[in-house]
Amino acid sequence: MCSRTMASKTPVGFIGLGNMGNPMAKNLVKHGYPVIVYDIFPEACKEFQDLGAQVTESPADVAERADRIITMLPSSPHAKEVYTGANGILKKVKKGSLLIDSSTIDPAVSKELAKAVEKMGAVFMDAPVSGELEGVGAARAGNLTFMVGGVEQEFNAAKELLTCMGSNVVYCGEVGTGQAAKICNNMLLAISMIGTAEAMNLGIRLGLDPKLLAKILNMSSGRCWSSDTYNPVPGVMEGVPSANNYQGGFGTTLMAKDLGLAQISATNTKTPVPLGSQAHQIYRMMCAKGYAMKDFSAVFQFLREEESL
Amino acid sequence: MCSRTMASKTPVGFIGLGNMGNPMAKNLVKHGYPVIVYDIFPEACKEFQDLGAQVTESPADVAERADRIITMLPSSPHAKEVYTGANGILKKVKKGSLLIDSSTIDPAVSKELAKAVEKMGAVFMDAPVSGELEGVGAARAGNLTFMVGGVEQEFNAAKELLTCMGSNVVYCGEVGTGQAAKICNNMLLAISMIGTAEAMNLGIRLGLDPKLLAKILNMSSGRCWSSDTYNPVPGVMEGVPSANNYQGGFGTTLMAKDLGLAQISATNTKTPVPLGSQAHQIYRMMCAKGYAMKDFSAVFQFLREEESL
Amino acid sequence: MCSRTMASKTPVGFIGLGNMGNPMAKNLVKHGYPVIVYDIFPEACKEFQDLGAQVTESPADVAERADRIITMLPSSPHAKEVYTGANGILKKVKKGSLLIDSSTIDPAVSKELAKAVEKMGAVFMDAPVSGELEGVGAARAGNLTFMVGGVEQEFNAAKELLTCMGSNVVYCGEVGTGQAAKICNNMLLAISMIGTAEAMNLGIRLGLDPKLLAKILNMSSGRCWSSDTYNPVPGVMEGVPSANNYQGGFGTTLMAKDLGLAQISATNTKTPVPLGSQAHQIYRMMCAKGYAMKDFSAVFQFLREEESL
Amino acid sequence: MCSRTMASKTPVGFIGLGNMGNPMAKNLVKHGYPVIVYDIFPEACKEFQDLGAQVTESPADVAERADRIITMLPSSPHAKEVYTGANGILKKVKKGSLLIDSSTIDPAVSKELAKAVEKMGAVFMDAPVSGELEGVGAARAGNLTFMVGGVEQEFNAAKELLTCMGSNVVYCGEVGTGQAAKICNNMLLAISMIGTAEAMNLGIRLGLDPKLLAKILNMSSGRCWSSDTYNPVPGVMEGVPSANNYQGGFGTTLMAKDLGLAQISATNTKTPVPLGSQAHQIYRMMCAKGYAMKDFSAVFQFLREEESL
User: Fold this and answer.
1) What is the ipTM score, two decimals?
2) d(Cα B14, Cα B35) in Å, to the nearest integer?
């Protein structure tokens, strides 16, 4: 629930109207915010024009008209371009503006952007989103979780907007820690999903019934979200991608991307991540072998299925 | 609770009175069973003599005097020796005897032993124990979980005895599936523990507070037993080995041993286990680098600490 | 060349007439040795009957009639059966016999067999063969290399026979070291082959011409047999499996088997082999994905090719 | 040998006078080139002042005075700063200048720099150096190998200078391919070095004499530069770092850095490098465990030595 007075409802900019950005921006509209949008693909803006949003020509234009902006972009280079490019936000950002980046990017890039934003007298926060596992549906329903990094005094201002789009808004610490939390979670998720797939596959080959094995793991120390909530073995659970030929959910390509970010962060901080780097390689191989668009739990299928060339 | 009538309390043999076997056998005594014991180290038997148990000279002797026997041995070769060796159980086993092996061994060896036992007209079940994480304490309190493989009709007979030593007795399927369930669980446990250590370490290096990061993981898709119940980072939880310099718990050597069994099973069944095999190597390196006797959650320390030679 | 006097040409037993055993045994015949053969598949013996060899009914029969025996078997269990089984060599082996096992098996099993053989007053040597890379052709041409483990005083006696089948006969040390040398070589071979495939693939993707890259590697510190003699990239070299759709050569299944032996030896000796174990997993995955019968250099194709499901 | 006429000996700029840059620049002086130097540490320039070189205040200053410049810098960010920074080369570069970067950096950064240089009407080539294995000595003796990427027409001009510093100058292709060749070689080198260390360690544990095992590998398919020229096992060869407590040679930190570049390139091109990424993790762990300043062949020691905490 978002219970602000109309008084606070000055325009909010939104840049990046893709799969996740689209329903997020719509939730702002639903909550009564005047929204000023931009997307590199003009068609993505049309729908918002019909909803009464102002459509602009560039990130700079958005920055000229709104002093609160949310960005939702696919990668570090896109984020750099939108903030610091030739027609980027920083060309026209107003002093005191609040810029919230919900993209999942390298935390080191978040810190760079924050510095550049600060120089202009504005505030930057990173607020990547989890909940992509339930995908667009969760975004539509406003069921996302935001992990927020930035100056603590500005957290409440950010929370006001983020609460319209997500049910959980968690303060993580200084700039970049929102990204850090997301990246660490997804790295652990990838590792335990592959581990679950390996353990279930091995157990089945050793003669165990998959449902029984899942039950045993889930009452034991092997229990994890991937085994008890999102089991990758068809027939063990309902309502998860493994029950639906690995359609929907969180794509293997996206997982590979997040693991790439984890590797960059690990290299920058000289942190050993032996299983994290192996998980990265496995998801990369899966992308090359036809699993790119399947849910990341399809690693069970990748490890299990035998093919002949 | 074990509520048998005294009628059923014919003698029970117990072979292998080590760290786990000792408290298990004592629980049988407590439940009123006449116990006939053997251990390769005579001193291990003394205590039981004082408790009124009969002490024998060999596994064969035990088999001569008891038609229900429980074995608790450190490895596959020990188990082979106790069953099929020169003075092994099979030299004098009586027809119809029930032989329950609670050792953690290669499921293929369990199957071999089962075949040899069957030839003698007796019944073999594998019933490895989980709960070593809480260690000897859990064994003493009778809080173990037994995962049982073997002919289903004999399960109740086995359960009568196992219930005296463990609060959970789970039927897993044909012979060897008890071992399989245990091995799969522990492989997944090792993978998710290392994953948790990597993710926590990376997050801390990126500026996150460890307690906060654990909280975020535990409400997200990275959640696992290693993060929410047995967190490897000192200061995050109380009452776990990481809070006590990794004393107690489940030793790194034992984890390395179980991962070795998982590798053997994976090789026998040609199952790919890329993270499981890497986890095996990591625990092996830890054993060589001074972590052998520490709890397996010390992988966090191994990955985190910087040394100079 | 083998230049013994006929005096020494008492009968030689040969057990295991498969892909490699067949041409090896024929080379003994060519060198004038009376040969006494056994194979579990009677058809495999026919050809030898036509060549004047004596065909027997069991390994024990061979041992009864020959005091020098060569065995060439596919795996550890087969070797155990042939030596210590119900109709095994040891049932009728004569004192002072020389038993040479050219199978590639676990060195720990070689040691076990050696002990059993010694008890009967005979001599056991392990003498696995390299040169399978050139396959049956090398065996036919007598171009094999034998790596021999066993008592040094008996080495010359073994060499007399082995020289008829191979151009190189190397003494490695006590029993089991022949296997050890072979296993270590093949583990390093697998690692450097995968490394070559990764490096070539990465270089090509970064815009390098494959031939030029191979040339640079081969004059630099990355040089290895897999890059300079057996390059896995089609078009770089002629006369190697990569030039012929990965036909011929050393099959992926056989490499996976040898890597399994390396893993067992590493586990027994608690030796960390992080890349060796990963190489094992990669060849196992390749076996499952249709590469089983291709040469092991096809790992380049496995890593490079993009598929859609 | 460098046999240019004095006519061509217009001044050459040299930026970056560290361990490798220092002897490289001196070789230019020896060959009669007037040299204009800059280093971020003024002390590094002193020696060159005494040799008659002109010392400047910034990369821009160098660019103002020389139309051929060689740069030798420790990492991608340093290179970016020197070329495109506030006082960077591009601030004052003359049209038609030839800029040769001998740093080892991300090939994608080389391409970026090349684009920026081209916009100013100058020419950029990447020419990383191999031969660091023999280290400063090779640089001093002019025994380096340069791998050159850039427009082919300009290769001869670059070669004129590079030949003064290295005995081998190889044209690799378009901009970035010099880096690519270097990175691919070093990734394969790391993999085969670790593989050699694993194989030698396993063989020794299985009872083989290290010298004999090295000899066997070197006449077999496991042969590689790390086994036959730079063997990591003390006592096997003389004149290599393993014979001298792993002093000298190519430091573990530098190898970890190059493997990091390989990972970045692999991620950018979506190339699977399972062993390359594992090698990266192993060298990273070694850096944390006190091996940072030892030669990279010390991975043998890391894998072999047993410690107690």
Assistant:
1) 0.93
2) 7
